[in-house]
Amino acid sequence: MVLGKGRERNSEHQAPKPIFGDSGGAVIAAIIPIPDRQPTMTVEGAAAASGDQEIIAWFEGVAENAGLVQTQTLRRIIELNHSTEYLQKWLGRDLRVQDLDPVALESLFTSSVPLASHADHEPYIQRIADGDTSPLLTQEPITMLSLSSGTTDGRPKQVPFTRFSCQSSLQIFRLGAAYRSRLFPVRAGGRILEFIYGSKQFQSKGGLTVGTATTHYFASEEFKTRQKSTDSFVCSPYEVISEGDYNQSTYCHLLLGLAFCDQVEVIASTFAYSIVQAFTSFEELWEELCEDLREGTLSTKITSPEMRRAVMGCLTPSASLASKIEKKCRELEESNWSSLIPKLWPNAKYIYSIMTGSMQPYLKKLRHHAGDLALICADYGSTESWIGVNLEPSDPPERATFTVIPTFSYFEFIPLYRRKEQDHSSSVITDDFVEGEPLPLSEVKVGQQYEVVLTTFTGLYRYRLGDVVEVAGFYKGAPKLTFICRRKLILTVNIDKNTERDLQLVVEEGSRLLSQTRAELVDFTSHADLAVHPGHYVIYWEIKGEAEDRILNACSREMDAAFADHGYVVSRKTGSIGPLELRIVESGTFRRILDYCIGNGAAMSQFKTPRCTTNQVLLRILDRCTVKSFWSTAYG
Ligand code: AMP
C-alpha cells in the first residue's frame, strides 16, 4: 500500500459556496440532478430539445466550477459514509463533518486516508459478500456487487454496485446524447441496434446479487428510463439481452436489427469488439437470417424458450424485406462486405461504442463495415465509476477525449514520469514510471500523464484504478483526458517493461506489412515464454486470408525491432532475451478464447481480448492451434 502525503490546504480558507445546496439528505439527487423534462432525441432539423439544453446547461455549470464541485462532491461522500468502518479507521471516530469547511475536509481526507488498491478494499468487500450488513464501506447497505471484466487481470474483481451506479450511467448517457444530437440529430422514435449482453447473475454467500455492471444496468429501471427519455428503443427485447448465451443473443440482435432496418438510427455496443464480432458473424449467418425474416420463423439454434417467445412476438413474415436484404447481401459478399452497415441500415446516423484503448485494433475492421458512417467514441468509465464524457463526438476515435464529470466521484491524479534510461538496471520489475504526489482535478497539467484515483459514492476510497490517462486540455474547469493504457506491465522477461499499449503499437507496426498481401489481422495476444533460456516474447496472430511466409518473417522482424523499451533493446542486443517468435494460429482460435473466457464468467458486453496471457488453458488452446512459427532475425 502506498501512503499519499495528502495536500496541505489552508483550513481557514473560506468554504466554497455550495453548488447544489447543502442538504445531506438528497445527496444523490443533488449530485446527479434528473431534469424535470427528460432530454429527448431531436427530430431531424429541429432545435435541440429543452431537456438536452437543460442537461447541457447543468454540465456547463459544474464544468465551470469543477474544482469546487469536486470539493463538494468529496464532502458529500464523507458526510454519507464517515461512520463506516473503513473511513473511521483513517479519519477517526470523532470526526464532525459539519464542523469542517469542505476545503479543510478535503485536506484532512487526502492526508489521512491512504492511496489504496483493490486488494486493500477486498477484505471489506468479501465481508459484505458474505452477509455482513454493518456499515463497512458505505452507510447504506450494499445489495449488489459488480464484476469488473478481469480480462486484464486474470480474474474478475468484485466492487460494490448501488443505485448511484445506475443513475450515473443514465446521466452520462443523457449528457453524451445531448452533445451528440447537436451534430448528429436522430429521429425521435427511432431505434438503436445495440449489441448488448447481460451475463449470468448469481447470489453471493450473503445473498447479494453479483454480476457485471452492464448486466445490472441493463436490468435496471434506469435503462428503461433511458429508452423512454431519449425516445429511442433498442431493437431487442430484454429476454435477448439477458439470456447469457452471446451466440444466441447476437443472432437475435441481428435478426431484429434487420426486421427494423428502416427505423434504425444508431448502431451501438459498450465496447467496439462486440460490434466487430456481430458483423463478422453476420457474414456467415445472413442466409439463415433472411430465411427467418421471410418465413417469420426463428432458427433452431435459439434454444432459450423465453428468448424464442420474445423474438417471435416481434417478428412478422416479410418476403419482400427478406428478398431486398438477400439481394444486398449478395452484392456485399462480392465486395468483401465493405460498407455493410450503411448498406443494410440506410438510416443509421452513426456507430457509437468505446473504440479507444484496447479497442483500437478493431477500428480497421469496424471502418471496413462502417464505410462513411461516423464512428463516435463512447464515454470513459469503469465498473468502479464513470469518469469522462465525450463532448466532441465528431472527433475521430484516434483523437477522442473524455471530459471528467466532477459530480460522479472525487478524482485524483498521480503524475507519472518516465524513468531515466540508466534506471533500467533495477532487477525489481516495477513499471516504467516514477510517481509524483497525487493531485486534485484542478491542479492537473496539459500534456502530463497520470494514473486515475477514485473516491466513489459506492465505498471505494482513494482507489487506484490502474488506468493511465493524459490531459489533452480543459473544458472550462474540467480536464479533458485521453486514454493511454492500463498501467500494468504485460510483457517482461528480465529488465524489459512493456504495457498493453506498447504491444499494440508494435503489432500495428508489424501488421502494416500485411497490406502487401490479401490477409488481414483478426486478433492477437502474447506471452513471455520463460520456459526456455533465454526467455523470449511470443506473439500470436490470427489472420484471415493468405500471407506468404516471406512476409510473415518480415512481420516478426519488424515487431521485434519495434519494441522501443530500452530494457528490451539492451536485452535483445546482449542476447539475454531471445528472438521474438510470431505464431500464426488457425482461423477461429480467438473465438475459442472468447468462449473460454465467457464460460468462466467474463461478459460479452465488457469483453476485452487478453493481450498477454499466462493462463495455461489459453496457452494450450493457442499452442494447439498454432499452424506456423516465424523467428525474428532483427538482432542477428
Ligand atoms: P471493466 O473492467 O469492464 O469495468 O472495464 C473498465 C476499463 O475499460 C477501464 O478501466 C479502462 O481501462 C477501459 N475503458 C473504459 N472506457 C474506455 C474508453 N472510453 N477508452 C478506453 N478504455 C476504456
UniProtKB/TrEMBL annotation:
GO terms for molecular function: acid-amino acid ligase activity. InterPro entries: GH3 (IPR004993), GH3_C (IPR055378), GH3_M (IPR055377). Residues 402-486 form the GH3 middle domain. Residues 1-21 are annotated as: Disordered. The gene is LOC105032700. Belongs to the IAA-amido conjugating enzyme family. The keyword Ligase applies. This is Indole-3-acetic acid-amido synthetase GH3.10. Transmembrane segments: none annotated. Residues 1-15 have a biased composition (Basic and acidic residues). It comes from Elaeis guineensis var. tenera. The keyword Ligase applies. Residues 502-616 form the GH3 C-terminal domain. Keywords: Ligase. Coiled coil: none annotated. GO terms for cellular component: cytoplasm.
